Structures are given as structure tokens and as C-alpha cells.
Amino acid sequence: MKDCEFLLNIDNKEILIEILNHSIDFLIGNRNEQKTMHLCYKYGCPDDFMLTIRALARFYKNTCCDAGIDIKSEFLNLTPELQKIIEIVLDTRRSEITRYLIRQINAQDNPLVESFDWDTRLVMGDSSYAHNYRLLTTLTLRLLSSGDKKDNSFLHMQMDEKKLNDFIEAIDEALQHERTNTRNTYEC
Fold first, then answer.
1. Domain of life, per the record (predicted)?
2. What would the pLDDT profile of 24-64 be if each residue is shown by its tens digit?
3. Long-range contacts for 113-118 (Cβ within 8 Å, ≥24 apart)?
4. Average pLDDT of the chain, as a whole number
5. CA nearest to 16, candidates 7, 3, 27
6. pLDDT tier at 188 (50, 70, 90 boundaries)?
7. Are 135 and 161 in contact (CB under 8 A)?
8. Is it the case that residue 169 has pLDDT exceeding 90?
9. C-alpha to C-alpha distance for 105 and 148, rounded to whole angstroms
10. Is 125 left (phi over 0), alpha (psi -120 to 50) or beta?
């Protein structure tokens, strides 16, 4: 891989492993480009570093999508020892990359819940009746749409205790249904 000539100048295994892990973090969105740029001064030329990070991220993505890609044929200019390290790092974090790629594909069809936040408040009456105490919960869902980390939307819901319990039960039923379907799929 021509874009990874930067790796030829690295003789320390620990630094190589760090760079490989940074490229995976860059791919799965744990680090954005700005955070990655802050790291590049530690390793040398910023342009070469970012080019290598992007190329490695692309390579890891393609490798997890297509099982036919051979590491040795992609990195002919690297020593067998460095090729082995690349393979070890990939095998170690393959499940993370695969999970990220699945989320990206699923987010293209439907918005996925990326995170959530809640806030509970006690309403001590309203304009119609002073002794109308209510416990209200505001639930905010951060949705990932179209598979792009930058394309987030928020869904805000406010509910009382009964509706909150109904909502939790519906989620539990959906999860149990999903587990049952997953188990049946593996048995086939």
C-alpha cells in the first residue's frame, strides 16, 4: 500500500501498534480528524501521518467487508514482522470494526439510537389546581441517521410515570423478541 510508506520509518513496535489503533479509532468515529491531527505531531510529519491513518482506516474497512483481502499482498513494502503486527491489531479489534460497519449500514435505512439522556422533574401544581403534583420525565434520544456521525437528530419526549413504565415494557418486549429471533437464526 503506497500510502503507508510512513510506517517504514517506524522501528518501535509500540508506536506502530498505537498508530494502527489510532487508525481504527479514526475509522469507527472514536476520534475525529481534529483530535487525530493533535496526535500527529508526536509521530512526525502531520500530512504523512494523516494520509497513513486514512489509508489504514480504508484498508481495515475493506478487509472487514471483503474477507478475500490479504494483508501480505497489500503491504508488500513492509517486513513480515510489521505485517504480522497489522494482522494482530486487526484481529484484536475486528469485532469493533464490524459492529461499526453494521451500524452504518443499518443507519442508512432507519435512524438508530446512539445515546439517550433523561431528566425527571416534580411538578408542584399547575394553573388549574395547586395540589396537582406530577412526576414528569423528559427523555431525549440522540439518533444517528444516514450512517454519518455528523448527521445526528434528537427526539424529545415527555411522559408521566405510567407512560414511562409502558415505554420501558415495550422496549423490554422488543429486546426479548430480538433475542428470540437471533437465537432462532443461529439454530437454522
1. Eukaryota
2. 988 888 877 777 777 776 777 777 878 888 888 888 888 88
3. 113/141, 113/142, 113/143, 113/144, 114/142, 114/143, 114/144, 114/152, 115/141, 115/142, 116/140, 116/141, 116/142, 117/142
4. 79
5. 7
6. very low
7. yes
8. yes
9. 10
10. left
